[in-house]
Each structure stands twice: as structure tokens, then as C-alpha cells.
Design a protein that fits this description.
The structure holds two protein chains of two kinds. Chain A is α+β, with helices and mostly antiparallel strands. In chain A, about 25% of the residues lie in helices and about 25% in strands. Chain A is built from six helices and nine strands. Chain B has a three-stranded mixed beta sheet with strand order 2-1-3, with helices on one face. In chain B, helix 1 runs parallel beside helix 2 (about 55-60). The chains are: A alpha+beta, B alpha+beta.
Chain lengths: ~190, ~90
């Protein structure tokens, strides 16, 4: 089953506004796969270039509209690929980001890339859908705890992410860096 | 996936449009060999060497997904092996 999730408000229809050949989101396999989100005014469709903070906030507000229109929510995000224009703004992103994922943050990978139209932030999101299967579970998403808590770098440095999230039949992992692998091999198992 | 000539297995370097066409052709065949198809793709990630070439990718891409295109994320990144485009996807079986 593959359902197209239409843009919840006209401005967020990037296919109509900018000719991007993509659906806003697709629901399949109990998950909602969103197109990469950038800071767009949801009413007018205007690009809202700003700071990393202002763009991240606008994206999360738009994601809230999109996910809630599909019967999901920000709380149900399981994985995020956060793209920023420059790694030097990593802590700025984290500061804005953590306000929107206060409980059980998604698995996350951050990378610096070229983003369309000179934006500073783009978020690529997968969320758990509202399904009968999900309703039967206590919660549609579940953080996977490492076997040895002291092997979890994300917790140690207080980053707003979970090492892994289970949603239905899938497990989503954070990006793994060399430091984590080294740590894992030293401590045998994460 | 990067642009590979399916007959020889050699890289098929070309323009962004040509590489996009080659990749999506190969991807369609691979998906059908796996019991899926381009129409069952739910999410696509496109990496291009320069976002200035976005429209060249987009116009070639459009032909492969005539109705209800997948969710998609496009970004500019440094690619391996001299390729200009690399495309990944998630599809239903």
C-alpha cells in the first residue's frame, strides 16, 4: 500500500510552487517518508531564508502540519537526516532542534551539503504512521537502549538523538562515526 | 546507484541528464528483477555534484515517474569516481 500524502497547505506543495517533481510525503509500510523539507512559508510558498535557527523552526512547524495531516506527529519521527550548509553551525542546529524533539528524539545523522536555493537547513524525515498495527503497540516507536549505557556517546554528550529507534518491522540507526566504532570495539558491544 | 553501462559494467560518465536517465533505467530494471517497480518507489535520495544542475536532473527525472512521484530529497555533495549523480531509493515489493 503506497499512499500519497498531499501538501496540507498550498504553500508546501513544492511540485506546484517550484516544479520539484516529488510528492510531499508517501505513506507505506506503516511509515511516512517525507520529502526533504526547507524553510517555506506555508501560506504563500515563499522561501524564508534566514538563520539556521529560524530555518529549523520553520521546517519543524511545516513538518508538524504535514505529519499531523497524515495522522502522525513530531513525536513519531523515527529518523532524521539533518543537512546544514556548514558544520560550524552544528551546535546552533542542535539548540533549535532539541526544542522540537524533547522526548525520545529520533535517530539522527547530520551532514553538511549544498542545499537547494541557498538554504542553510534541510531535514529529511521518516515518521511512524498511525496504523492499526501501531495502535496495538504501547507506542509506535521505541528507542533501542544500548546494552552498555556507558557505550552510548549520544547520552554522554547530551545530543538530541537516540542511537536507534524501532518502528514496526524496522530499526533506524543514527549515523555512526569512527569514534563510536572505536568505542564499540573497545567495549565489545554497544 | 551511479551511472553504469549495464552491458559492460563500466561507469557511464555523461551530463547530469544522461547520468540520471542511465541510473533510473538501471534502477527500474533492478526493481523489476526484485518484484518491485519504479511505480512502487516511496522515497528517493538524489545526490548531485552541483546544485546548479538541479533542473537538468529534475527534467530527466520527471520522465520516469509520470504519476504520483515518490517523496524525494536532493542535495549537492562530493561524489566518488567522477560521477555527477548518485540516486538511492526505498521501494515496496
Amino acid at each position: 500500500m503506497r499512499d500519497v500524502i498531499p501538501a496540507p497547505v498550498p504553500g508546501l506543495d513544492l511540485r506546484r510552487e517550484y516544479g520539484h517533481h516529488q510528492s510531499s510525503a508517501i505513506r507505506a509500510g506503516g511509515l511516512i517518508f517525507c520529502s526533504g523539507m526547507v524553510a517555506i512559508n506555508p501560506e504563500s510558498g515563499e522561501r524564508e531564508h534566514g538563520t539556521v535557527t529560524s530555518e529549523a523552526r520553520r521546517i519543524f512547524e511545516n513538518l508538524k502540519l504535514l505529519l499531523e495531516s497524515a495522522g502522525s506527529s513530531l513525536d513519531r519521527i523515527v529518523q532524521v537526516h539533518a543537512m546544514i550548509y556548514d558544520r560550524i553551525e552544528y551546535d546552533v542546529l542542535n539548540r533549535a532542534y532539541r526544542q522540537y524533539v524533547p522526548n525520545g528524539p529520533p535517530a539522527r545523522t547530520v551532514m553538511s551539503v549544498q542545499i537547494e536555493a541557498g538554504f542553510k537547513v534541510m531535514l529529511d524525515v521518516i515518521a511512524a504512521a498511525e496504523t492499526r498495527q501501531a495502535a496495538d503497540m504501547t507506542h509506535p516507536k521505541q528507542a533501542i537502549e544500548p546494552r552498555k549505557p556507558d557505550g552510548d556517546v549520544s547520552r554522554r554528550s547530551d545530543l538530541p538523538l537516540s542511537p536507534a529507534i524501532r518502528a514496526g518491522d524496522f530499526v533506524f540507526f543514527r549515523g555512526w562515526r569512527r569514534s563510536i566504532r572505536r568505542l564499540a570495539s573497545r567495549r565489545t558491544a554497544l | 546507484m551511479a551511472a553504469i553501462d549495464p552491458a559492460t559494467g563500466e561507469p557511464a560518465h555523461g551530463t547530469v541528464a544522461a547520468e540520471t536517465q542511465q541510473i533510473l533505467t538501471n534502477m527500474g530494471e533492478l526493481l523489476e528483477a526484485s518484484g518491485s517497480s519504479l511505480a512502487k518507489v516511496v522515497k528517493v535520495g538524489v545526490l548531485i555534484y552541483s546544485m546548479l544542475e538541479y533542473e537538468n536532473m529534475n527534467s530527466a527525472y520527471r520522465e520516469f515517474f509520470p504519476i504520483d512521484p515518490p517523496a524525494r530529497t536532493v542535495c549537492g555533495a562530493g561524489l566518488i569516481g567522477g560521477h555527477k549523480v548518485e540516486i538511492e531509493c526505498v521501494a515496496l515489493v
